Every structure is written in C-alpha cells, then in structure tokens.
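Hi everyone, sorry if this is the wrong subforum. Our group has a chain we'd like a structural model of before ordering constructs, and none of us has done structure prediction before. Sequence below.
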Amino acid sequence: MTTIVDPLTDDLESGSLFALLTCVRAETDPPGSTGIPGLDGHIRRTTFNGRDVSHTINSKDVIEIQGPSVGKSHLLMHFIVTCILPISHHGWDKSAILIDLDHTFDVHRFKHLLKTHIRVHIPNSEEDLDLFVDLLLQKLHIFRPESSVQFAVTAANIPNYHSSNMPEEEIGLVAVDCLSSFYWQDRFLGEQPRDGKPSGIEKALNSLEQIRQLHGSVIAYTNWGLPSARHNPENSSPFYPQHIPQLHSPFAGEPQISHSILPVTYHMTMRTVAMPKISRDTDVEQLMADRRVYDQVVEVLVRTAGFNEQVGSFMFRITSDEVIFSGRG
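Answer:
Right subforum, don't worry. Here is the predicted structure as tokens:
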C-alpha cells in the first residue's frame, strides 16, 4: 500500500478533541475576576498593561498564598466561593475541587461565609437562599489525603473522578490547603536512601500540572512561610523563600531551577496587621460591644511573575460573618 503524505498536514501535532476544546475555551472564556478590587487592580496594571478588563484571571493561572497561619485558608475560601457562584453573582459559574491536606476545612464555616457573601444579591426569603446555597455546595468536591502518597494518588485520579462523577461540570479551580502539610515527613524521607523514583509530592505536583493543562483549571494553593537560614530581622525582605524543592520562585533574587512544575502566575504574601493598643481609659463595656476588636486584619502583598518591581497590596478583615476586602492594589 502506498502512503500519501500531505505536506499541509504532515507537520501538524495531533491531540484529543477535549484538549482542543480546552484550548479554545481558555482563549475565549476565561474564568472571571477575583472579586477583590485591590487584587484585580494590581493584575490589570501588570498582566493587562492597565487595560480595564472584566476578566482578570485566565485559565491555567497558578496562585500561591504564602505566609503565617492567619488568613491563608480564608483567602482560599474566597476563591472557591468566587468559582462556584454564577456569573449573575459575579462568579465564574464553575465547579471547584478542594484537596484539604490540613484536614481543617470547616464546611459549616464555608457555608456561612457563602450565605453572607450572596445574601445582598438575593432579594428572596431565607428559605430560597438556603436552597440556592445547597445547590452551589454541590459544585464543591472535597478530598482529604493523609500523606504525600495519598495526595499523589488523589491528584492522579481527579481526571477519572471528573469523567465518572461530574462529567457535565467544568473544573474551574483546584485548591490545595496546605501544600506544606507533609513537608517535614517528606523531608525526612528524602534524606533516606532512594531508588531514583519521584517523591509523593513530586508526583502530586506533576498530576496537578497535567490537570491544569488538560482542563485549563486555575490552581490555587496555600503554603507555609519559612524564613531562610540567612534571615536578618534588621534588613529582611517581607517575602519568604520557596522551601518546596520541586517548585521555584519566578522573582528576581530568589533561587531558580531549570524545570518548574506549576509555574506561579500570582504570588501573595500574608502579613498580620497588629491590632491597636487599648488604653487604660477605654470603656470596657463599649469595647466588648465593638465586635471589630475581635476581627483579624491581614495585609497581602501581591507579585506578578515577570513584573518583579511592581508589588501590589490589599487588606482583608476576617469577621464572624464575612471576609471584608479593602486596599488599593
């Protein structure tokens, strides 16, 4: 049999229809905005050169939230809320997958924040709101691995889970809280004799990268902020070095590696804001009545890959009912 070679198609790469549709969707239907004015403003100034775009987050973006313990999970919750909300409520109208490595995700707390977030947009009764929230919660899929190996297996099986359990849903966001949960265990195992096989965390990160490429999902993860051994309190940067060896920071002055898994698009560094001191003349009863005294205020420094000199910022306040954002960006 004679093989006929078409010069017009011989050099074209082959691929699946699903991959083609993902590429088209990524270009024509990006997820949306973050819903955080200060953050959206920073992204417009960097990624979009100041253009007033409505969609500030692109498909396949990678968001790292790093810093001390306070605030990271609440900021991640906000991204999940934004992902599952319909477009009419300034959301992405997509499904979200949460990999809860810390086992600290509080569904009741999340539901309460979700209800508070949308209550102003729903003029209906509380009963209608509860029904609406329950429908939205069906778009959130939660996994709780207990080791890096289980994390790797979970991440590798997300495409199968998607095709079997949520084939009609689009994975807009894969959130991981917290990527450092098994850091010390993995570091101990990494110091033991190995046969050259990749570690559990490396396999998990590779699987997340495949999901990002195949589904066009946004990847958002929290990470510890560990100071380096050369940390100088008198002349220190507000940013933390990357301690997970399979990842790297795209910012100047930080260690680089030749191959990067999950290249960061936006990096956010959390800083707890000190609460004002209470004077002796303060009325105790009035102080107790002011619920804002118990709120936690967090400042977030934002960097965009490729724009090292431009650091944005915003702040948010965590209350018992909601997360309130402010700041210039």
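For your construct planning: The longest strand covers residues 307-318. The two ends are 65 Å apart (CA to CA).
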